[in-house]
Amino acid sequence: MEQGVRAEHKYFRVTKKFPVVWCPGCGIGIVMGALIRAINRMELDKDKVVLVSGIGCSGRIPVYLDFNTLHTTHGRALSFATGIKFANPALTVIVIMGDGDATAIGGNHFIHTCRRNIDINAIVINNCTYGMTGGQYSPTTPFSALSTTSRYGNIEQPFDICELAIGSGATFVARSTTYQALLLDRLIEKAIRKKGFSVVEAIANCNTAYGRINRLGSAVDMMKWEKECGVMVDAWGKMTAEERKGKFAIGLLKDIERPEYTEEFDKITRESQNITA
Amino acid sequence: MANQKGNVYFLQGNEAIVKGAIAVGMRFYAGYPITPSTEIAEILSEELPKLGGKYIQMEDEIGSIACVVGASIAGLKAMTATSGPGFSLMQENIGFACMAEVPCVIVNVQRVGPSTGIPTHPAQGDMMQARWGTHGDHPIVALAPSSVKECFDLTIKAFNLSEKYRVPVIILSDEIIGHMREKVELPAPDSVEIINRIKPSVPPEWYKPYDETSNGVPPMANFGEGYRYNITGLTHDKMGFPTLRADETRELMGRLMKKTTYFKSDIIMMEEFMLRDAEIMVFAYGSVARVAMAAIRMARERGIKVGLLKPLTVWPFPKIQVERLSKKINTVIVAELNAGQMVYEVERVVKKDARVERLNKYDGELFTPGEILDKIMEVV
Predict the structure, then answer these.
(1) CB atoms within 10 A of CB A3
(2) pLDDT in tens, B133-173
(3) Is the pTM of this model over 0.90?
(4) ipTM passes above 0.95
(5) What is the pLDDT of residue B2?
(6) For residue B306, with 0-12 CB atoms within 10 Å meaning exposed, 13-18 middle and 19 or more buried, which class applies?
(7) CB of A268 within 8 Å of any CB in chain B?
(8) Domains and CATH numbers, chain B
(9) DSSP bridge pairs for B28
């Protein structure tokens, strides 16, 4: 099995004209790399992998990759993906969304897909801003942070995407960052293998919009911040509330078993056919 | 099912839509409950599992139509059913289906609007929304049944047109048609015409998912069949990749529009009733067309030369047919359960060939034959 960059090249679309749309230093490419490494290790059949995305910088990942790729409308990626997976459960369906995509305009679809527990893997790239439109505040922008629509500081409280997923009933929830990229690809692999709805949050740096307006420095500076603030879940469990301030847990946050939607539907299919027969 | 004797049934319009959809091979339904369309969801939730089909209740209508489009991309014939408020929410992804050329059928059992309106009373207020509800120029097909049998027939037709031209097809029913019961004789399942989407005949490396073809409709590969390609709501090139180029945008848009304009003769269906010698023509569709027929019979008894033009296809508008007929008559009465919607199309087409009179009602009640007769007497 090829590793690293050579492996990644095997999954790029040669017919698609590069370069990518992302800014220099953007964290989204790192998430794309992690996704490819996970798929490569699993040796999935390209023909049976479907990548679905919504709108925004994160939504542009699938077009570069050589799978069945669907770039949908803003916030609706999970609903399109639900249709695909339910219609053909043999496909591996992976959804890539941004923080605004998944938890603002797509918030309703997000919580209900968690609740329904259909076997889809969602990767939410959280860079705390609407990057493609130039850096407005999103549902994950921290309190008091600046953005092009919160010039006096953000007065809203942010979502914790993983808490939201856990509260909504997702069976597998994990978080990593673009700094902890190897942890990220291991978590994505586990999430894809999980039978049920899984969420992996990838904290990513938007150095162009969010970083610049909040004076957080270069892409490297922002990744250093990720390194300092991302605490492995075991250590996180031993920290006091005071020590946790400004930091977040990374790693596998939840992994439980619940009946999976397509399997449950198969059961009622058989049941209904027995009644008819 | 009860109410059945051989292949003769006593059915509601909504039930006939279910029967038509199943007969033509629909095997995926996603929806959200809304009056007066809910029977469609209720029956399908029971019937589809028996057939190996899929039923899912989504969190809203936005998710419902998105789910339908996803299922169609994965290869199943898919539909949803709703009414005005839900139809408004679906517009975004109906536009996606137009742009990405994904076959799907949307049933709108119309009720009084705007907003929540009167959920249990009929209207025809979504005619223009069906045409222009989603943003941007786009092709669309909409069919309007006026009987239970037509609910069955037009649902079959809707899927066939959708698969053939890769466009979303809207069925514009209304509360009267949806809930009315009639005796209908349904055809044997094997005598139903079924048209399926054309699959690519070339190997994957040669496949151009949005290529120009002789009829403007490129073959469609379903996800998972070995043709790995990109589908996007962005303006795209022949490979399905996003483009900003004017020439490629023009080419795509031209081809999209061509699908419903070039093949109008295949898409447009209409019925004429007592029009041969008519001087007055009533233009009516859906539940109103039924009332108009009764009114026309009453007027004929009084020696008035009046007939009915009932379009079954409302979009694309039957321009040539209305134009031809308008030269033979002197007055058109456009009767609608709205403040005047399709009448704009009739006026645009008829021009000065005939006088166009409006008859409108938007209080949640259906016309009585007497009301249409009065209008006929008034214009004589």
Answers:
(1) 10
(2) 999 999 999 999 999 999 999 999 999 999 999 999 999 99
(3) yes
(4) yes
(5) 60
(6) buried
(7) yes
(8) 4-191 (3.40.50.970), 270-379 (3.40.50.920)
(9) B54, B78
